[in-house]
Amino acid sequence: MNTAVISAGTASGRPIRHSTVAERLRRATAALAWNRSAGRRHASEDLALLHERRLEAERLREENFRSVTFARLF
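and the corresponding C-alpha cells:
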C-alpha cells in the first residue's frame, strides 16, 4: 500500500509563508467586520423607515376613525 506524507504546504508542494496566511486572515477578518457594520447600518435605516411607516399608518387609522365617526353622527 502506498501512502503519501503530507507536509505543511500547498497542493503544489510549495511551503506556505506564514506572513501570507496571516495577511489573508487579517483581510478576511476586516471584510467580515465591514460587512457586519454595513448590515447594522442598513438595519438601523430599515428600522427608522419602518417606524415612520408605523406612525403614518397610525395617523391614517385615526383620521379614518374620525371621518367614520363623524359620518355616523350626522
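(Above: one complete record from the training split.) The chain has one helix and no strands.
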